[in-house]
Design a protein that fits this description.
Radius of gyration: 40 Å
CATH class of the largest domain: Alpha Beta
Shape: rod-shaped
Distance between the termini: 130 Å
Number of helices: 7
Strand content: 15-25%
Length: 308
């Protein structure tokens, strides 16, 4: 046993002397340095790989949590929008938020704003801002529908600039929306978001905007532009209005085109005010009102023929 222990000690000593001889020379020390650096580089690479895996798992978890929490909210919704039911939700849906989006994405607000700016209901996008509670606030100016233009058997909504808004509407839809009708536009409607650039429609819109501030505006049911510029009969009023009970209000030429042939806009508005104050209404008892002359002309209905 003692001989075996001495033999093992001699082998260990010999191994130690051989290792020492390897590093005792400059060449040996160089090899040891290369070996050490290699081990350190490998250890660093393994550590970096492990760290990146941990970071990726963290980012995935964080992204998943923020994906499910994104909400969008429209600021400054006008009162008229309440009559259009799900319109706010339809506008927000056009923002294009998907399950792959997350609130920490630096480009999210910009990308959302670009998509919303394409929606015809939005006149101008002011700002899209991110909030700490995973909410996107949408601040924009909306296009208010001014009238419903009839073409064939359906209606198309347009704003005060003549821009067509989305949707195709039936007659029974318009009363709940509180929309004035506009009849007689001769051209085809454009696609939503495009301006319906025709003179007869522009004249009808201008007339509605002139009447809108006045108390009798609520009794205006429709504007008729079928005889615009006298294209059907130059002797008839070029533009007319009707009330819910079919009183015809003969406005005349389009605003700004009266020349010396008719009373200007101010005079026509004064005539309409005079009749309204006298009867406390423009509807019901009157068969027609003609505003084109210096003094308003009108005719009362035959009591035997009640308004329709």
């Amino acid at each position: 046993m003692a001989a075996k222990r001495k033999s093992r000690r001699r082998r260990k000593a010999g191994l130690f002397r051989r290792c020492w001889s390897l590093i005792a020379t400059p060449e040996g020390r160089h090899r040891l340095g290369v070996f050490t650096i290699t081990i350190l580089v490998l250890a660093l690479a393994i550590g970096v790989g492990w760290g990146l895996q941990r970071l990726e798992r963290f980012v995935r978890k964080d992204r998943s949590e923020h994906q499910t929490g994104i909400t969008l909210r429209l600021l400054h919704q006008p009162a008229w929008m309440q009559r259009f039911g799900d319109l706010p939700q339809e506008i927000l849906a056009s923002a294009g938020i998907t399950p792959d989006d997350f609130i920490l994405d630096k480009a999210l607000a910009r990308r959302t704003g670009e998509k919303l700016a394409e929606n015809p209901w939005i006149r101008r996008l002011r700002r899209v801002s991110k909030q700490p509670d995973n909410t996107l606030l949408i601040d924009c100016e909306f296009r208010r529908p001014l009238t419903a233009v009839r073409h064939q058997d359906v209606y198309y909504l347009v704003d005060d600039e003549g821009v067509r808004l989305p949707g195709v509407w039936k007659e029974h839809d318009l009363d709940s929306l509180g929309m004035k009708r506009l009849f007689g536009v001769a051209s085809q409607p454009p696609v939503p978001g495009q301006r319906w650039e025709v003179e007869d429609l522009a004249a009808g819109l201008k007339l509605l905007l002139l009447l809108e501030p006045h108390p009798y505006y609520r009794q205006i049911h429709a504007v008729h532009v079928d005889n615009f510029s006298g294209r059907k009969d130059p002797r008839r009023a070029h533009l007319t209005l009707t009330t819910p009970h079919a009183t015809q209000i003969r406005w005349g030429r389009a605003a700004g085109t009266e020349g010396r042939l008719e009373l200007p806009v101010r005079g026509k508005l004064e005539n309409l005010r005079e009749v309204y104050e006298k009867f406390q209404t423009l509807d019901g008892p009157l068969e027609y009102i003609d505003l084109r002359d210096p003094q308003p002309r009108y005719r009362l209905r035959d009591p035997a023929s009640p308004p329709t």
